[in-house]
Amino acid sequence: EVQLVESGGGLVQPGGSLRLSCVASGFRVADSAMYWVRQAPGKALEYVGEITHHDFIYYADSVQGRFSISRDNAQNKLYLQMNSLITEDTGVYYCATDPDGRQRGQGTQVTVSS
Q: Which of 24, 30, 49, 106 has the most CB atoms within 10 Å of its CB?
């Protein structure tokens, strides 16, 4: 059974940083493309970025240069380092096995506010 568990969210001031983690089970992240998606209050799920099976990494324009995705194959984990956070980054962040977030974890809340 595929399971994804995110953690690391919290309240942070604008300009701050957070590192999100996602522990996967039931499959190997090393063999999969993995995605981060997010959902702001009252809005649809939004693609944040991905790391492909061959370790190519892509980001949405809105986070390019501020966010960084990485993967620890030994621990079967995915990470999202978020720097220079802005209020528009507020939302629930999910790791997923597809870019639409159809198979995702329970999410972790990120709130960027002064």
A: 24
Residues 6+ apart with CB under 8 A from 106: 5, 6, 94
DSSP state of 104: B
pLDDT single digits (tens) 59-109: 999 999 999 999 999 999 999 999 999 999 999 999 999 999 999 999 999
Digit-coded pLDDT (tens) for 15-32: 999 999 999 999 999 999
What one-character DSSP code corresponds to residue 4?
E
**Residue labelled with tokens 């499959």:** 27
pLDDT for 9: 98
Q: Which residues are registered as beta bridge partners of 96? A: 35, 104
Contact of 29 with 77, CB cutoff 8 Å: yes
Residues 6 or more apart whose CB falls under 8 angstroms from that of 39 comprise 45, 46, 91, 92, 94, 107
